[in-house]
Write a structure and sequence with these properties.
This protein is mostly helical. It is built from seven helices and no strands.
Amino acid sequence: MDLSLVAKSLSNLPVFLAFFAICIALVALFLVVYTRLTPYDERRLIQEGNVAAACSMGGALIGFCLPLANIVAHSNVVIDVAVWGIVALVVQVGVWWILDRLLPGKRDRIARGDVAAGVTLGASSIAVGIINAGCMTY
């Protein structure tokens, strides 16, 4: 094994760590904002085995991470990840807000464990995340 190739490859480690750190920070911010936005305690509901809450939260998380992954793949500037990560956060929170108005009773249905409501919200979040990620390709 040529150690110079390994060293050259590892020379990109600081860049990886910078991009990874900003993404993890954005994910943490997203989870804080999302869980404060929703009227139910996802963490408690998920710990209690509420599949609807898990589907809703899991879909929102995936929907948020898709644009992050896309911007990391298409940018070499960390600030792009931060800026477009905030855009992705606003879009995902907006999806929740719009669906909250379009699906009457969704709040109570997820809290009660209605899987159909959780899957609908989660799938909608993923779908919008895919579109969001595609729109961030430049």
